[in-house]
Amino acid sequence: MYCVVMKNKKILIGISGGIAAYKTCELVRLFIKAGAEVRVIMTPSATKFVSPYTLSVLSKNEVLINLFPETEDFSKVEKVDTKTSHVNYGLWADLFIIAPATCNTIGKIVTGISDNLLLTTVLSSRCPIMIAPSMDDDMFKHQVIQKNISKLKELGYKVLQPEQGELASGLYGYGRMPEPQTIFDEAQNFLSKKKDLTGKKVLVTAGPTVEYIDAVRYITNPSTGKMGFEIARAAQERGAEVTLITGPVSLNSPENIKRIDVKSADEMFNAVKSNFKKIDYVIMSAAVEDLKPVASINKKLKKENLDKKFSFEFEKSVDILKYLGEHKNGYKLVGFALETDNELKNAKEKLTKKNLDFIVLNNPNEKGAGFGHDTNKVKLIDKKSVTDIPLSSKYEVANKILDKLLKK
Ligand code: CTP
User: Fold this and answer.
1) Is 221 in the active site?
2) Contact status, residue 253 vs residue 280, Cβ threshold 8 Å
3) What is the average pLDDT score of the chain?
């Protein structure tokens, strides 16, 4: 899809020798379709995974692989084409993306080794460099690799977090290269360099809350926290000072944010109350559990003490968003509505009842939307309008929410 930010942008893509190289073909397509100019450098081992010919056709440019001309007889090399030298490519690019970046390539980058064209170009580049590591779970977790990845960050490279999932080895774990669309979104945001939240303080809540029935059993909901984490990340990248209050989730914190971990709705409420003063924007994306047991039992209930049928008494947990709506002290407030029927009507009611600036409506029954997905499909609703955000990455949706918030 054509995109203004990408129009005529010069994207240099470096491919090292990992199986995820096949996904990089799609990444090149995304940039070309968005109006960018793309050049590709491959390491010799990357050519074992995908054909340079494919990448040349997709990028509409010659693909560079070798540091030296492929000849034994240098007397026949008439003229070195400096336009396709590592120095020239490094200066040409607005953004250099290395995807996939193998352990080998990462190790060499952090130590300054430059024994192929891709690595020499890294050293001679003046543009920002984004690195998408890709490897097996055990390799990714290895302390040497973790140290190298930290080193990359210290050196100022923008490192993308590998995803969790099934790996080409058949193992399940971390190390999977982010999907092409995710890398594209990151690049787009990086290039747009929106710093429109500089000086603003943003409070985001995320994830589920859990309410313990006894010492070992609880009720909760399937929220994974992805939406809230993406909002926190996007806000931080746009210059905001971000506080993220999250229920139990298994996500890594976005960089440079203040994270507060909580379990129950009451704990989240207390954390919100301690952090909502002097805030500019509050985004309540947590799926706060609505019910909590009336009496808390702090030991494990034994079966033999229970009848065949038994019941627990629950009460409503505190409505944090409603409290925030009633205590607005200058901040803009965004809520979420999770609705499966009468969506618009219910969401609009929540908008008014909770005194919100706008509400994000999502329906978990929509394909690719809601709990656990990397994508979402929402409507942004305020008193005057309803804006449809088509199925997009949660990161994209997060940015759309922030765009709207800034207009309030
Ligand atoms: N919310 C909250 N505290 C609660 C319940 C929900 O702050 N105890 C917030 C959520 O973070 C969300 C919004 O209220 O931003 C709407 O949540 P939702 O679950 O859709 O609606 P509820 O208000 O809980 O009402 P219902 O479950 O009846 O739809």
Assistant:
1) yes
2) no
3) 90
